[in-house]
Amino acid sequence: MDKGKIGAIMVVGGGIAGMQASLDAAAAGYKVYLVERDISIGGVMAQLDKTFPTNDCSTCILSPKLIEMAQHPDIEILTQSQIHRLEGEAGHFTVTIKQKPRYLDAARCKSCGVCTEVCPVTLPSDFDEGLGQRKAIYRHFPQAVPSAFAIKKYGRPPCTLTCPARLNVQGYVQLIKVGKYQEAVELIMERLPLPGVLGRICPHPCEDRCLRRKVDDPVAICDLKRFAADRVDLDSIAPPQVEAKGNKIAIIGSGPAGLSCAYHLARRGYRPTVFEALSQAGGMLRVGIPEYRLPRQVLDREIDHILRHGVELKTNTALGRDFTLDGLFADGYQAVFLGIGCHVGKPLNIPGEEAEGVIQGVEFLRRWNLGEAPTAGKKLAVIGGGIVAFDVAWIARDLGSEVTILYPGARDEMPAFSLKTEPAWGKGMNIIPLATPIQVIAGPDGKVSGLLCRKMKLGEPGASGGRKPVPVPGTEFELPVDIIVPARGREVAAGPLKDCGVKLSPGGAIEVDEVTYQTSRPGVFAAGDVHTGPWTAIEAVAGGIEAAESIDRYLRGVDLAADRTAGKEAHKRWSKIPQDEAGQLRESMSALPPEYIGADSDKIFRDYTETEAQKEADRCLNCGGCCECMQCVEACLAGIIDHGQQPQTLTLEVGALILAPGFRVFDAKLKPEYGFGRYPNVITSLQFERLLSATGPYDGQVKRPSDGATPEKIAWIQCVGSRDASIGREYCSYVCCMYAAKQAVIAKSQNHRVETTIFFIDFRAQGKGFDRFYERARDQHGVRFIRSMISRVTEDPRTRDLELTFVDEDGRIRTEEFDLVVLSVGLNPHPAAKNMAAVCGIATDKWGFVETPPFETVKTSRQGIFACGVYQSPKDIPETVGQASAAAGVAAALLSEVRGTLLSKVVYSEERDVAGEDPRIGVFICHCGVNIAGVVDVAQVSDYVRTLPGVVFADHYTFSCSTDSLEAMRQVVEERRLNRVVVASCSPRTHLSLFQDNLRKAGLNKYLMEMANIRDQDSWVHQGDPEQATQKAKDLVQMSVARAAMLKPIHELASPVKQRALVVGGGLSGLVAALTIAQAGYQVYMPEIQPRFAGSLADKMRRTLEGYDYRPFLQEVAYQVEAHPNIHWWPNTKITRFSGNVGNFRCRLESSQKKWEVEFGAVVIATGGQEYSPREYLYRESPRVMTQIQLERFLEDSPNGFSPTSTIVMIQCVGSREPEHPYCSRVCCGEAVKNAITIKEMRPQARIFILYRDIRTYGFKEIYYKKARDLGVQFIRYEFERKPEVTPVRGGLMVSVFDQNLKATIKLKAEYLVLSAAIRPDPIAREVANLMKLPIDADGFFMEAHMKLRPLDFGINGIFLCGLAHSPKFIEESIAQAQGAAARALAILAQKEMYVGGAVAVVDPEKCVVCLTCVRVCPYQVPVIDHSVPAAYIDPAACQGCGLCASECPAKAITLQNVTDSQIIAQGTALAAG
Amino acid sequence: MTDTWSPKIIGFCCHYCAYTAADLAGSMRLQYPPNIRVIKVPCAGRVDIIHLLKTFEAGIDAVFVAGCIEGECHFLIGNIRAKKRVNKLKKDFAQMGFEPERLEMFNLSSSEGPRFAAIVTEMVERTLKLGPSPLRQQERAAWLAGQPKAASG
Questions:
Q1: Distance from chain centroid for Cα A999
Q2: Which of A10, A37, A482, A1100 is spaced 20 to 30 A from A415 at the CA atom?
Q3: How far apart, in whole angstroms, are the C-alpha atoms of residue A1462 and residue A1460?
């Protein structure tokens, strides 16, 4: 064993490619880490409604794989993860993974969904491609794996980042939106103790940054806060229960800073004392702001609430006058907060200022607000333009004074202008802008008699662009006034701080540390205006919050600054504003008419109604995603939500990586001419899938996004973002033609009246069964196909219908209206793949697709790193699945030495024999949190169940699937000697295997488990009827108990696996499959039923379209096969007999010398194909007619075979797409283009005409089609009804063709005619099919088990398929399929033994009358007649467990174990009796 | 006591499509009448005539079998076989004078939660019109007595 290699494989990407690669790699014996970016796996396939060409429901075929992924013990799914770093080499890589937080414990999430019900945040659903909505806590779809929910967080929203106090604005706005006012206020009050106050007076910088501004107006955040605060009784909000702390803390000043600091200290358990110099608390809030802007009752209520937290208030106690800082410390105070504000007005500094009648604005307001009516005189002048100036003016006006406002700057620069002062503007007062006082004139009594002023003008713009006012000499004038109120700002009072021992700034403010708010004196902290100078209340509150944190740390002896800058980072990654976000007028608490305004009024602004408030809150764009309102935390009964989760970094060791990052559909906005994003009824094809889906935004109804109407005319435009050099997307996206046809068919089957039209260039139906689908869509379903490229879409803005102009079948230009236009968008590599490729160090092409070496499409430029799916090239689901298997196969071959070294091993205790015991049934009833218990009375159900026969135990559990409940269950099984267990909970589809596993751990056979589905099929669907739901739960449990009593242990039999493979077919596919299996460490038998190579189609080919020579590769493979010790090759040997089942097949071989038998566990069928030998167009009659393969050899062997100016005509679809062979041979268009390019490059003068029906150069082959056109190759389209005609003429051939584009017959004289002949299956396929009982389709190709998800499997387990035996394909595609088939075989060969039996059919030979009914009815041909008995025999290893035979057997000799007649009937009878 | 009768209906649902659709109806919180009790079978083709007969015999008022869409059966043909049996039994019922409407076969895909709810609603409405199973003689008599005389309309 190579000790350096690691037996683990990392798969990147959880779409269908990643899932298949994971399942195959795990089955082959490797530990698998699946790394997925999103919150769940499933990829784009999970979004699809149906899949072509079978129209299978996408969910139906995907979800069993999802469940298999979820339950596989050796697959570890890492969601929300990306590769961050990769080191090492093939066999041993070290990978660093970064995992984003899910914000909950996924392993313990019960997926009950209660959280989404309480989440107030709705975001556009990315799963529904933006057409629907989802919550911020969500999962993409009900069957998602992992089933756990996840929380989506973007950056912290700009409102919160702008708020100095960091209020969770989005949170409380969302709570208001859903009417949870109490919760909203509680959320606000986690930071802000004064919601009603700030809801009135805050200058709300948050609104200036609100992203809603980009749509229309910002959300009225401040008004909403006031609305919520006014609606909630603060008495109902209890202070938090915390342990009381004894430290004495002094808060000096009861303004917003002091109150905030006291409040937050009290919430931490302290009992601070607040000292207030004035008679009432509130600071500037009380004495600086008049009643009409801040009603006293609001302020009083909120201060009272703060005091109720245990804050002591001492009024009329002033610092410096009544006490000192030193005194406080001496009294045992351990920390002091200084928040004494700025209460001193700035002097005017003009002569005469000391005259009686000059009163500072702050002083004026203080007196007014404290109830001491200030003198307003007869004529009063206010100097200033701020809010204080206006408050003074309004009060003076109401006191009967004639008011003049003097402001040195321009009128519109007055600071109050931007505030909520509009209602009072100018009413009854004289405003003089551009004027400044220069002298106070006093009378002889020392009282003011006038004010001398001077006019100003705006000066020249300064460096900052602002124009400073400058005095205009000679413009002095006098205002006759008796009161002058300077209101030009405030200062910190110097007196009280004089002896505090704290460092002051030159302006007199206290200097503090920016983070901790600690002053220069230890234990003394300061914030608010005393530190900032006159500033906002919210800034003061913010300072108080931070100071409280510091004081707490200071008292606890913790570092003051540690980890405090976090959360202030400026996130910019907010959720995108939806394109279609409609403008909505801002509901604002608009100003009341001016007549209501007055100094005695307590309201300037009216109140919101509830409807208005909720409507306004609903304007919030939720740019932060989750709003952190914590409603989910409250609601989650499992208690698993953790909003503080941090990103994780994981380091994993793996031997190989398989990259399957998948794709995103083309961004249709890059083709603006189609109007996507502007016209609501232009949607992408992926959006249309969501419309069709029953789980989509309209529950499966196709509706127009603009008006919800059912469309009657739908158009598809093909090649949007494909085959388009103008936007740099030259390749063909492979799937669009087919998915459009599928969508049109499904739309028609839903609504027969709908008219569907597909506008296309070439219809590309190159896959197996595709052409038949296309024809059915056209001929049976009536889908209209129009071969015309649409250049633009125009919308009728009135009806929102869409107009398309096109050229119709007759060549006329027509215009038609449609209700809905679907853009068939192409596939682009997932944008995240770019970074992944860089980290992994692998080469990609200019579009970002991975570059692979020639012929081996699953390898990358780096050894040990493989790739598959659309990341390699655009492709459909079966190709993706096949390629994923191939990647798993080559990775397994690389790591063969360390296979099985890292697999999990579960040891179960020995099973207790319950034979002969009477049923002792235990019933475990689940609450599923409130999911069941919220509707069903689980206690009543338990009581009832205890009365049922056989039940010895019944109880109910909060979550029966939680680890502790499972343990309790095991304990009860042992203590009560239970021999049957019933769990009444959710669906057995998702949880039966979990409970069965638990039963095994408890020592009971797993078939003794039964479940009653009382959630998905009861409590969830009868929420409004608890009584009936409870009755139904009783019935369901009773039915389950009745069935449980009938359950019998079933012992699955271990059957040894013959760990060897048989490969049938010695062409390239067979060789590659054999080599892959051999390299993975297993023996391979290759009886040569046809000569190797010679005759194999691959051997006749020379080069790929891309120019790579096949031959060296083929020779290398052949050499390796011959040299490999694990491969046993017997030439000229036939298989004459074949029998057995998966893991245990045998066949008889015969050569001319001997006959012998071999045994093996798995089979790969690779019988290959042939080129059709045409019977048309003079082939074999004229030496001038050849096939493409012959042409390629001719070009290589006789490079001068053509004259330089010769004319060569190629005819496509010879033997393909015809009534007898209605399939496309897939490779011919590429072959024709390849040979045409070769000729053109050798003989530029040669004239080449390719007569075609549709050019199907899918994927990157499209590039060569363009190249051929650029080189001058002419393409002429003919239709099947008017095939070309060929007649021999002298010196050549005359080819006559009706050109469908020109609508004219063209005659071409050709030197050579080249036929693109069809691919046919090798005739030997029929022999093999008969021998092994394998199905063959109408075209003679083998039929796989499932076209979409099991393209390489047969319905019979253990036999696999690849290459041309499956369908026509290119050599590199055959190679990938061969590697894939090998991987599928490895999954069986890796097992030493397989367990067979279980829920399978068994025959009672005594009863069997050998009537052959079972033989006829079994869809899998499993029953055989054992003539020695005689009776039918059903091989337990082969039986699929459907029970058809049991139901049809006339003698009732067949029993389907675990689903017996008596078990089924017991359930019905129990219900009827109950 | 006609007001106490509430139909009892059994739906045999195949594991792969119908039962999954029933679960999906739950995930989508679709509300439908509570009269339905589902019995899960691996395939609609597992449902035998004897199961249907015994269920009716026990006194269940209506029964339906729900399998995958035709052509999409996980076991290829199980749903077709089930349909044959159901149709045969319906014919027999008609001859016996037992309302064949009490038995029905449905096909749906696993993503059709809404259709499952619609199927249940339809069966319940149908059964409410038919009244209690004739095999529940007492309830049926009481129900018939409570019916308005048909002739009056």
A1: 36
A2: A482
A3: 5
Give contacts of A1345 with chain B, Cβ < 8 Å: none
Q: What is the pLDDT of residue A1472?
A: 87
Instruction: Provide the pLDDT for residue B2.
Output: 41
A60 at interface of B, judged by CB pairs closer than 8 A: yes
Check B111 against A1443: CB less than 8 A apart. Answer: no
Note the ipTM here. 0.97
Q: Alpha-carbon distance A573 to A834, whole Å?
A: 20
d(CA A562, CA A807): 72
Residue A68 near chain B (CB below 8 Å): no
Chain A / chain B CB contacts < 8 angstroms: 172
pLDDT, residue A1121, reads 93
Distance from CA of A23 to the nearest CA of B (A): 20
So what's the pLDDT on residue A142?
82
Inspect the interface and report whether the beta carbons of A1021 and B25 lie closer than 8 Å. Answer: yes
**Nearest chain B CA: its distance from A657 CA (Å):** 33
C-alpha distances (whole Å) from A1385 to each of A32, A867, A1353, A1464 are 18, 20, 9, 37
d(CA A1312, CA B6): 82
What pLDDT, on the 0 to 100 scale, is given for residue A418?
Answer: 56
pLDDT digits 0-9 by tens, A660-691: 999 999 999 999 999 999 999 999 999 999 99
Q: Round to whole Å and give the CA distance between A170 and A617.
A: 9
Say whether pLDDT at B153 is over 70.
no
Q: Which residues pair with A1297 in a beta bridge?
A: A1306
Q: What tokens does A105 get? A: 């414990």
Amino acid at A1439: C
Of A248, A266, A340, A250, which Cα lies nearest the Cα of A303? Answer: A266
Residue A707 burial (CB < 10 Å; 0-12/13-18/19+)? exposed
Q: Give the pLDDT score at A948.
A: 96
Planar angle of CA A145, A151, A154, nearest 5 degrees: 125
> Is the Cβ pair A1444, B75 closer than 8 Å?
yes
* Beta-strand relationship, A813-818 and A802-807: antiparallel
Cβ of A1018 under 8 Å from any chain B Cβ? yes
- Is B25 within 8 Å of A1440 when comparing Cβ atoms? no
Instruction: Return the HEC string of A469-486.
Output: EEECCCCCEEECCCEEEE
Which helix (H) or strand (E) segment is A151 a member of?
strand A150-151
Please state, in angstroms and rounded to a whole number, the distance separating the CA atoms of residues B92 and A87. Answer: 73
Q: d(Cα A151, Cα A632) in Å, to the nearest integer?
A: 10
Q: Is the Cβ pair A1440, B10 closer than 8 Å?
A: no
Q: How far is A780 from A598, CA to CA, in rounded Å?
A: 79
CA distance B21 to chain A (A): 10
Residue A426 in contact with partner chain B when CB distance is under 8 A: no
Residue B62: DSSP 8-state: E
Strand duo A713-720 + A820-825: pairing: parallel
pLDDT, residue B151, reads 47
- Testing the interface with B: which of A60, A930, A1346 to mutate, by most B Cβ within 10 A? A60
Which residues, given as ranges, of chain A have pLDDT below 50?
A: 1-2, 420-421, 423, 593-596, 599-602
Per DSSP, what are the bridge partners of residue A405? Answer: A382, A431
